[in-house]
Amino acid sequence: xxxxxxxxxxxxxxxxxxxxxxxxxxxxxxxxxxxxxxxxxxxxxxxxxxxxxxxxxxxxxxxxxxxxxxxxxxxxxxxxxxxxxxxxxxxxxxxxxxxxxxxxxxxxxxxxxxxxxxxxxxxxxxxxxxxxxxxxxxxxxxxxxxxxxxxxxxxxxxxxxxxxxxxxxxxxxxxxxxxxxxxxxxxxxxxxxxxxxxxxxxxxxxxxxxxxxxxxxxxxxxxxxxxxxxxxxxxxxxxxxxxxxxxxxxxxxxxxxxxxxxxxxxxxxxxxxx
Length: 274
Prior knowledge:
Elements: E1 5-10, H1 15-26, E2 30-37, E3 60-61, H2 65-68, E4 74-77, H3 81-94, E5 98-101, H4 108-117, E6 122-125, H5 131-143, E7 152-159, H6 169-181, H7 186-189, E8 190-191, E9 206-212, E10 218-225, E11 230-237, H8 241-255, E12 264-266, H9 268-273
Parallel strand pairs: 1-2, 1-4, 2-3, 4-5, 5-6, 6-12, 7-9, 8-9
Antiparallel strand pairs: 7-10, 10-11
Helix pairs in contact: 1-8, 3-4, 5-6
């Protein structure tokens, strides 16, 4: 049995993609066997600078996806929604390899396409690769068992000024965990902004607030607020390396010692459960 996990990365030029590539290269039990950028990227056909000097691995455009994943056991995706969906469909059509994606901001249609792909390949979708965030999600679900008539839920997230989507995928994921435990959908319960004369807070809603500034990697806090007490579940990321570390843990879990997982939809909850 080969215990080494061969990994191809989609979106290696972004912040997360570069961190994942570095973590793979520095790992003793993982190998970077392919890297894929968007078809219109100027990095296609070139090495990714110093990061890939130890492998001399060429970076190819997404039109050459099949060549880049030829030796991969797992594909880790840190690209953009359109590339994520296109890659998932192509992987599903050829029967693999497994896909692990940390891309957020997908539309409802894109989510449905990923669900369809998960019927053909193992597909792990993470709102956040951090193992700490995965544990926070589990704790939020437990705390959401507190009665909605007594406990209000407010979710606050803060990220660097360059982040383009809001609320973050992690904040939405935490909100969905709370809503599911309460037997509602986030679309029903979510309050995405407040301005002006909003009136009293509606019972059972889940509020969101967003901050953007500086180079903050990521901060999330879920507040359960009652009349006489408050419970807060929070997580702070100090270095983007935690996301890369979590992505590799997901890849190891997905590879399952070389046997691999069966087709289906997975999450980081599966990873922390072992």
